[in-house]
């Protein structure tokens, strides 16, 4: 191994023995630290992206994360710009792409979730091509300081349900408009901005507003192309809160701060990440995190910038008057008075079965969505989602525009 000395310590490329993997080296890190006589946490191992049998070992004499790193202020001017959220151990900037991506920020209490959320929000408020909505079921404690930059803030389960249902209506309208003029994706501009819905404590939403979770899952599955994105934070990444992984699998940006238990790493990031070196249970200060996103597939420790309450106040005040409105089409979809929030009273006892039977017995020209809503007693979103799932499984097909058959 040949070593290169840099500002922070030294690094060298390691060639593994035949059959050995980087996970084997990661598992030996404490022993390597002991043999080298370094402080615990000084040795880092990174996979060589080009060769499974090679890795880079870094030994950090100086820790750039030793102290809080002040936030330099917003750098993004469009949702298309990656957002600078902090620095890696080698002092390079952590840049997170957010356009057409949902994001999940997870970590135990006091790990710095609000900090990361605030860095991202501090940048998003400076982007004239994003409308921000917020859901904060802790009485608005976290998001209220940003209220002047949020087009809407929901602080009760009912408001959250309404908001997410509106988001689904918007994404459906946008998808429909895109299919009419053959555009594949919604390109955010200040006239037709993206919609980012910030949800602080997703588990709280799952506990108190199960209907809203259905809408959130719809947004997670179908929102990206039409620039309706979720930015969620959670302290409790339980299977239940994460919809058994359904939500998480749609979140292509995952920020994992310190977790209490090793298995939480896999709940926030993914299976196998712990043994691949994503040791979020060993992060030792608030704001430290691992990032999994496009261009970030190695377990590199990072630390978020520290955003003070003063930063939040100043930034919100600076950008409050520059926030865009939704485009007319999306606004109309959200305002639609006829859209019922509650399921109709005559919901079938087994809506799934009722749907399948109706499709099986449909006339040759198929049944319309309205007829399927009538038969199942379920809302449009549910019917639409189930039809997509049945179509993907090959048990339902669209005979003509908006008409379905088994
Ligand atoms: N990037 C950071 N650098 C240094 N200190 C930080 C950083 N982020 C947060 N802190 C400090 O850690 C503490 C907890 O941060 P924060 O409120 O963001 O955590 P949290 O995970 O959101 O907590 P909770 O689960 O209670 O909402 C705060 O006192 C804050 O000053």
From TrEMBL:
Q: Locate the FtsK domain: which residues?
A: 80-266
Which UniProt keyword terms apply here? ATP-binding, Nucleotide-binding
Gene3D superfamilies, alphabetically?
P-loop containing nucleotide triphosphate hydrolases
Q: Which PROSITE patterns match?
A: FTSK
Residue ranges for the region (Disordered) are: 319-351
A single MF term (Gene Ontology): ATP binding
Q: Which Pfam families match?
A: FtsK_SpoIIIE
Q: Where does ATP bind?
A: 107-114
**PANTHER family, per this entry?**
DNA TRANSLOCASE FTSK, SPORULATION PROTEIN RELATED
Q: What is this protein called?
A: FtsK domain-containing protein
Task: Give the organism the record lists.
Answer: Paractinoplanes ferrugineus
